[in-house]
Amino acid sequence: GFDGVREGRTKMEDEGEKLRAEGNALFQSKEYLKAAAVYTKAIKVDGKNAVLYSNRSAALLHLSKVKRALMDAQTCVELRPDWEKGHFRKGAALEALGDWQGALEAYREAALCNPNNVEVSAKVKACTRMVKNRSKPITKEGHEKRSNATVRENGKSDVDLGKPIAFDVERIKNYVEELISESTTKFVEKGELEEMVSFLPGRYGKDGGQVVGQVRIKDAFSSPDTLTNCVDFLRQYGEDVCAHAAVAVIDKSKIAYPQVWRKSGPSGWQLGDHKGFFVQLETPTERKIWFVRHKNGKAVPEPKVSLDIDNFMLLPPLLREC
After folding, report:
1. Per-residue pLDDT tens for 127-166?
2. What is the residue-wise DSSP string for 248-263?
3. Which residues in the chain show pLDDT less than 50?
4. Is the Cβ–Cβ distance between 111 and 117 less than 8 Å?
5. How far apart are the first and last CA of the chain?
6. How far apart are alpha carbons 93 and 7 in whole angstroms?
7. What is the pLDDT of residue 150?
8. Can you give 7-55 as a three-state secondary structure string?
9. I need a labelling partner for 171 at 20 to 30 A (CA). Which of 12, 42, 264, 308 fits?
10. What is the side-by-side order of every strand in the sheet holding 298-307?
């Protein structure tokens, strides 16, 4: 999350602190784009405040502006090298870029600043495991598992692209609704869905038409390792087609990891044991996730339920800036 009031502020910093509080309120409301804009105003007033860079980094990461989030994290580290949060922000951005070694080093720096931070310790362990797994030679079996993330139809990642397509929120909204409708029909008919991520490109094809890339991700959610391998491929694919949106449709029954519905407590899973599928949307400005409930092969009343992306995210940020 974001960070609170910095201790020992002076009167000269009051305006910056007021803007910080405004940005924090927007962040809490998940208005990440507006929060980032307010933090930018605060930075113009108080450019030496490491907390502001940390907060803007967090907001930018939610917007999938990973490179910019990394720059802010680095500035935060330079301003307050003994504060674990700056190193943590840097680690989170590097993790989103798929740089596991760099993320591990950043999280280790955060742990040195505060050895008692449980979240940091968990990140060190997770990244250590990922670095070790990536250093192992790829066996035939491993190669086959990676190759399960294959492109369907004419969605080649090396497709020749033409002119840019204007970013259109309605285009994305209509596409998501169309995918949910199609997926609901298939789920009712077959009782299951094939794991798929669809990319809405930001450029026309070379022939002037629109090419929607659909990527099968069979077995991607069988383990943390297979999911990581799949995410690397998806990020590259999204960058290749300058995607305006990525929409994952994942059958709940196909997920061995992460089983987000196992979370308990007030912010945990509240939808019982319904069968159904998740729909996770990512655009350059927002990330959302829904669960479409079914029971006895039929959709229940108001089947699409909005979930908190921070609690129930299945895929990390995929889209990079083109």
Report:
1. 887 777 655 443 333 333 333 333 433 334 445 677 889 9
2. EEEEGGG--S--GGG-
3. 136-158
4. yes
5. 27
6. 26
7. 39
8. CCCCHHHHHHHHHHHHHHHHHHCCCHHHHHHHHHHHHHHCCCCHHHHHH
9. 308
10. 149-152, 213-217, 196-200, 245-251, 275-282, 287-295, 298-307
Cα–Cα dist 134/111, whole Å: 23
Strand 196-200 to strand 275-282: parallel, antiparallel, or no bridges (unpaired)?
Answer: unpaired
Residue located via tokens 């609170």: 4
Beta-carbon contacts of residue 139 (< 8 Å; ≥ 6 apart): none
Q: Tens digits of per-residue pLDDT, 202-218?
A: 888 776 776 668 888 98
Tokens of 200: 């809405």
Name beta bridge partners: 276: 293
Phi, psi of 10, rounded to the nearest 5 degrees: -105, 170
Q: Any long-range contacts for 66-71 (C-beta under 8 Å, 24+ apart)?
A: 66/93, 66/96, 66/97, 66/317, 66/320, 66/321, 67/93, 67/97, 67/320, 67/321, 68/321, 69/93, 69/96, 70/94, 70/97
User: Which pLDDT score is estimated for 280?
Assistant: 97
Q: Count of residues for the chain?
A: 322
Structure tokens at 181: 């409708």
pTM, two decimals, is 0.59
Predicted pLDDT at 152:
39
Backbone angles phi, psi at 73, to 5 degrees: -65, -40
d(CA 285, CA 289): 14
Task: Report the 10 Å Cβ neighbour count for 61.
Answer: 25
What does the pLDDT read at residue 2? 59
Helix (H, G, I), strand (E, B) or coil at 70: helix
